[in-house]
Amino acid sequence: GLGFPLWYPLAVRDPHIAFHPTGLVVALLLIVLAAALNVFVYRGRNWARIMVLGLVVITGLTFLIPAEEARPPGLIEQALSILSFVLELIAIYLLFSWPGALWFRSRTQT
Questions:
Q1: pLDDT at 71 over 80
Q2: What is the mean pLDDT of residues 5-24?
Q3: Are 56 and 92 in contact (CB under 8 A)?
């Protein structure tokens, strides 16, 4: 999620941005955020599920912004981006539909 598989094609197109120390730190922070959200979703935290939904919505909105790059992404990179987004939408559907939503109900101690 969050476009990690597409980091390499971006680096090939523009290594000055992708391999800049600030870009690498941001990428590392996003990887840590994604891992933490996955752990909290696994633990049944509803706020993490909602946060993942928000991030997927933001990702979807970025598809509406036209790219103003010197070298726009190629067909394969665009296809991977769309495939990644579709898989994220499927995951969101599974998180919010039954029986996935049951995972996030409060559990009573017995």
A1: no
A2: 68
A3: yes
